[in-house]
Structures are given as C-alpha cells and as structure tokens.
Predict the structure.
Amino acid sequence: MMESGLEHQIFAPADVLAHATPDVLASHLPAELLSKVLASSLAAGAMTPERVLETVTPELLAKHLPHDVLWACIAAAAARAGVTR
C-alpha cells in the first residue's frame, strides 16, 4: 500500500517521513540500513525525504517499522482526500 500510494502520488515522501520520523527510523531500522541512509545523504550533500525513501524502500518500511506508523500515513492521506468514512 505504501508503494502504491507513493507511485500514484496519493502521498509524497515528505508525508511518509512526517510519520516515520527520524526517531522512529532510528529506533526501528537496522544499523546497516541507517548507515546506508547516512552514506547516501552525505554523498548527495543533503538528506531529503526522497533520498531516504530511495534507500529505505516501502518494502523495507513495512518490514521494519511499526505498522501503526505506516497506517497513520495512509489515514492522513485518506483524510486529505475526504475518504475517511
């Protein structure tokens, strides 16, 4: 669902990271994946939501993050679209 939401621009990388905050990522991602995020960001000169999600793909988000965090992102997108009933 995360991958489809991003692909169809139902929500943007910044919307995902509004819920999957740095604290959430640091608490739940394996150290080697966090290292890849930092290395990619340093190489590019900036840490952007897009760059984070290039490394921490929707599949990896679903594997490592609490699902309530991901559902909060989906629920927020549904609320913005007016389909919360």
